[in-house]
Every structure is written in C-alpha cells, then in structure tokens.
Request: fold
Amino acid sequence: MAQKIPSSEITPEHIYLSRRKFMTGAGALAATAAILGVAGCNTSPTAPAASGSNTAQSGAPAKSQPEAPAAVQPQTDELGDPLNTFEAITNYNNYYEFTTTKEDVAAMAQGFTTSPWQVEVGGLVNNPKTFGMEELLRFEQEERIYRLRCVEAWSMVIPWVGFPLRKLLEEVDPKSDAKFVRFETVFRPEEMPGQRSPWYTWPYVEGLRMDEAMHDLTLMATGLYGKDLLPQSGAPLRLVVPWKYGFKSIKSIVKIDLVDKIPVSLWMAAAPNEYGFFANVNPAVSHPRWSQATERRIGEFGRRATLPFNGYANEVAHLYDGMDLSVFF
Amino acid sequence: MATRKNGISPLMVALHVGAFVPLLWTVWDFWQGNMALAINPFQEVTFRTGKAALILLLLSLAVTPVNSVFGWRQVIPMRKWLGLYAFMYGLLHFAIFIVDNGLVGGGISAVALYEATFKKRFALVGFAALMILLPLAVTSNKWAMRQLKKNWKRLHRLVYLAGVLVIVHFIWLVKSDVREPLIYGAVLTVLLALRVPAVRKSIRNLRSRRKNPRTIAVDGA
Reply:
C-alpha cells in the first residue's frame, strides 16, 4: 500500500507510458485510449498523453491494478534500455540560442513565446503553405522512443510525441527538382540572448536530403513524455532524426524550404572540418577533437560503445550505400 | 628567496582555505541537486577541477610580478602553495577524465583510455601540461632547491610552458566560442610579459617616479 503514492509521484510518465503501451497492444482498447485522451484534456491537442498520465496518477495503483500490468516494468527503447527521466531530458539541453551552459537552458528558456506559432513551408513545392501549430497538431500524434546521441558523446533515451515529417511534406507536394529540405529556427534575439552572439550565423539552419526527410523514422516532434514540448526542448516544433547527431535535430522551427542545393547548416558554417552535412552517428569516424567510439548514456556510471547509425542501421544504412562515410561525415 | 619567517599570515590562511573552495563548492552543489552534477557528474566535475587548476596556476604565476613590479613581498610564500594546489586540481581533473573515458561497458577499456589521452590533441596538451607540473610539484621544497641549485630556477621556468599548454588545451576543447579561454590566455600573456626585464623596469620606473623609490630588487622565476 505504501508504495502506491511514491511510485506514481516519482514516475508518473512511466506508468502512463506503460499503460498506454498495454492499451495499444490490446488493439481494440487503443481507440478507447485515444477517445479518453481527447475527452479528458482540452488544454492542448497533444494532451491525450497528459490526460492518460493524470488518470494513472490519480486513480490507478501502479502494481495491483490488473489493467496495467506493464506498469511494473520500466519503459525501454527497442534495445531494452530504459528511458531517461523527464527531469534529465528537460534540464540538460544544448540550445545555444539561450545559453551554452546545458543545465541553465531550462531557466533561460522559461517564458519563451511558443504560441501563436506558424511554420512556413515553401521553396520547390507545388502547394506552399503556412501552417499554424494547431493545424500541425491535427496530424496523428505518435509516440516514438528514440535514442538521442549528442555529437559531444553523451546520449539519452527519449519518448517523443510527434508525426513523421513525410506527412507534412506530402501536403505541400514537393517538385521533382527538390533534392534537400532546409529548416530554420525562429530568429528572436530579444527572447533568445544567444542569438546576439557573433560567433555563429543565426538563425540556426539544418538540412536533410530528400530521402532522409521522407524516411519514416524522421519525426517532427511536438512533445515528449506525453506532454507538450517545453521551450528548452525546442517547443513547439522540432525535428528528430535519431540516427544523426543531436545537432541535426533543429529546434523551434518556423521555416521549411525544399531546395535543390545542399543547405549550409549553422555548424557547417561555424566549423566545416568538424561538422558535416550528414552527421550520421558513426563510432568509426572520430570528431577532430574527440573519439566517437563510446558515449556516456546519461544516468549510467560507465560509458557504452556507440552503435553505427545510433542503432538504426537496419533502417537507414541503405540510404548511404556506396558513400564513403569518412568523407561524407 | 622567501624572506618571511615561518609565522602563518592571514594571506596564507586565506590561500589554504580558498584552495579547497572549488572542492567544497562542488560537494555543496551536488548536495543541493545541481543539475549538471546530477545528470552528467563526471563531465561537470572534470570541468570544475580543470577550471580550478587553471585559475590556481595563473594565481601562482601572478606572485612573482606582484612582488617584482609592485613590491608586495608578502605574497612570495604563496607561490609554492598555489602551484601545488594547481597541480592537485590538475591531477584530480585528469583522474576523473580517465574514469569518465576509461570505463566502457562495465570494464576498463585500454583502447578508450589510449584514445582519450593521446589521440586527441586537446587531451594530449593537457596531459603534457600535467607531466610538466609533476616534477615541479615534486621539487617544490627547500631540500630540492638546495640540491638543484641554479637548475631549480631553470626547471621551474617550465611552468610558463605549462601555462601556455593549458590555455591551448582550453582553446582546443571549446566548440567555437573561444572567448573564455582567450580571456585566460590574455591574463597569462600579461603575467608572462611582466617578467620581461624591459617591461618590468619601465613599470617600476613609472611607479618610483610617482612614489618614493622604495622598490626592492627581488628576482624571481
């Protein structure tokens, strides 16, 4: 009995996620879960998750409830590694628009205006369109548990919420000469003091090749742990490309252009010898200043070996067939 | 060299207490649930001990000019201890870096250790700086001074090289914004420039023209 309250207080997200997984697994119940979610939460469109979480917290005992047997086990990625905590994910951030100090980003980003928010999608497309955030949230929001491997050789496991970028691109109908997708972060130096730094060419820019952008793993994230993204995580909309180093996963996106030439990202411009366009996670290709062979999984004592393509080689390695990855790093 | 007798001055008390502030501060922050320490403790402690070592090393290098240029002799006995504490933090910094990089998959990885220490230029120059400070720390006592005679000063001038290597180590470590290491580099440059006889003399002349000529020609490495 005494366990119930602490466990739901400490890891409400786990309970929620396990519960949701169970329901999804149950097939018929999945629809019910979605309905419950929408009905239970009017605060925001991503909130089915939050509503599920609330249900778990207020009512469901973690261990004895028969509907939620999975709650006993911690949630993991497909390799069996546990999720990082919400606290770690939202308090250890690389977001140079706010500050270069990872543990200070959360405080600096508080109050960042994420609503209203619009994303202008154009360039080489047949139906250029500016999407309001509420329109983007109408795409079915899925949960994706991905490993995030930072180029600085640390990593986390994060339960994102979002939709495949492909769905958005299909709406604007890319022209046949569109070869790359170029993303741009909002430029708002009054709210993002880091953008006044002369060391980088603001705003932040990132890019993907068309086939990478259309890949099912490539996610436009709107939330994590079943909640809306917080500003420090790139609210309200960010890219997540799990087989590439974290800096490719551009945050707080306001502009997406389809283009025919390789976009020059902020990091390519800042240090072309250190950061390439592809930036695929690759233990065999060292960063000029440190090895990429191992990584520190946040929350673990020792390091672990870094996996090629961050463990997604089966899904994405074929995209780079015939390419010398030490040249196209 | 040091003219002061063995009495403990308030300055020395401040030095010995101050030298442990970075360590105690880290323990305090950890206890207070500091995010960086809670989430990536190895890296954060590596950063903190490295910064402490750098600042202490610069302070130790400030002692000689403070005396020779400004004639404040009370600081002379601090030089040895500032250097020793800098070495202590440097050693701690290296030890934590080794634990951070050497433990892979539950065991000690020789390959990872080798890569971490020798394969990356920033780590290599840091390691070199520490290796230079090692004999200086070992010989920072009266007995070694007597044994080495004139060579002692020659040996201890290697600290200038260690200082430069530490700044290079810092510059090569940061991503793009090199402002912070360059600030420390500028401080080091000033401290080294004040040792150039011409610079030292011209500043001393300036001072003595304004005040009474009471500067004492104390030489120092």
About this structure: Chain A is about 25% helix and 20% strand. The mean pLDDT of chain A is 83. The interface with chain B takes residues 88, 91-92, 100-103, 106, 154, 197, 199-200, 270-271, 286, 289-291, 293-294, 296, 298-299, 301-305 of chain A (CB under 8 Å). Chain A has one domain: 40-55+62-320.
